[in-house]
Amino acid sequence: MSRDTTDQSDVSKMQLAPDGSFKRAVSSFRNTIEKGDRYHLYVSYSCPWATRTLIVRKLKGLEDIIYVTAVSPKTGPNGWPFAQVSPFPGVDEDPLYKSKHIKDLYLRADPAYTGRFTVPVLWDKKLGTIVNNESSEIIRIFNTAFNELLPEEKVSIDLYPNTLRSEIDALNEWVYHDINNGVYKAGFATSQEAYEKAVHALFDALDRVERILADSDFLVGNRLTEADVRLFVTIIRFDPVYVGHFKCNIRTIRDGYPSIHRWLRNIYWKNPAFKDSTNFEHIKTHYYGSQVHVNLNRVIPWISVETGMTLADGNNVTLSKRAGFEVVTCYGFGTKIDRAPAITVIDDWCDNVAIGKGVPVGATLWARYNYGTFTILVSAFALSNPSCNGFIIDGNCNRLLRLPLDGCNTGGVNGKQGGYETDLCGQWRFDPGSNGSDV
């Protein structure tokens, strides 16, 4: 069986060859597991390797069997800190030993340990030691080791089925080397030659994935497997981080790979294990704020949560292929309208605002107002014109709803669903044939 034995989790685990290329070190703790309520998982939501374990843990329903502690995304000289050292939303204190850093756990397990202090860490509470810190092995442990403790619906979830193992292993091999680790080879390269070699191998591999997903909803066997989990953690970080931070900028996922983008959003929105295991604030804070060898000034770009992550329609067909849809124009905050549009829409980051028909030339787009799961979108013109309409989007940015406002009062969400949805590129489109329905 082919297995990526160099797979690791902490991106600070940086080793450079003489030619400037990035080499990843080998995991140190590779033990087996027993049954029972004796294990604890330490992770970082910013780390793609650790995120693998979070996803599989939730897919298999192990939340009440294996508890999780999340470290801060702000790494320093001592590695991954816990909340008492580096407070951050969603970060925990170590409930077992009140450790200050992940480093403390490694030294507790082996006082003579001299390797890197990485996540994920699967900890044995009974023996007080690390069971495994290799994500590819932890997810396979989670896939089967606790089945006797799970209901049948979770037992039936097999991410590494016997009939598909050879295909999964073969795909994992090149996805790991050229995509999962490929982004780091490009981002951590210290020579032009090493960077160009890595970035072209990366995009050749993405092209290969695009061809696979053009005819399938999943990577192997047209079903969810560990191959999807392993690729997801890289692709979800690609546009927000790797395009700019690691200079992987030949194409973005949302603009250059429609099949991968559809696959990504369908997995993210339709399976809570993927969405709930993804924390964009942790991701961008760690990469931009901690990797000073790449981003010396630690300036963190403004990136919206769920950037470009509007949901593909239920039939997995791009709305642009449907009759009656027309592309309309996107405007940002404070934009002056230099012509009267039929309709103006929010952009694909779900952060700008929409204004409706009849908005005069010179109107300025205004802010948005949050009411529970809805966001009311109005313009400066709407605020001063009692006959106008506003618009709302649902909390997942999945569709745009027309909201007749009473005197343009932004309170309340009694509206009609107009014919407005998102296409696979995140643009809003208008369906003239839609009559709308009650919200």
Describe, in plain words, how this protein is organized in 3D.
The longest helix has 22 residues, at about 190-215. This protein is α+β, with helices and mostly antiparallel strands and about 450 residues long. It has 13 helices and 16 strands. One of its GO terms (molecular function) is glutathione transferase activity.
Provide a short characterization of the protein structure.
It contains 13 helices and 16 strands.
Keywords summarizing the entry:
globular; 13 helices; Glutathione-S-Trfase_C-like; 31% helix; alpha+beta; eight-stranded antiparallel beta sheet; disordered C terminus; 16 strands; GST C-terminal domain-containing protein; 439 residues; four-stranded mixed beta sheet
Beta-strand residue percentage: 15-25%
Number of helices: 13
Specify the helix fraction band.
Answer: 25-40%
Number-wise, the strands total 16
Oligomer description: single chain
Tell me the distance between the termini: 52 Å
* Gross morphology: globular
Structural class call reads alpha+beta
- Low-confidence region ranges: 1-15, 21-30, 311-439
The rounded Rg comes to 24 Å
What about the largest sheet? Answer: 8 strands, antiparallel
Pfam families: GST_C_2, GST_N_2
Protein name: GST C-terminal domain-containing protein
Domain GST C-terminal: 161-287
GO molecular function: glutathione transferase activity
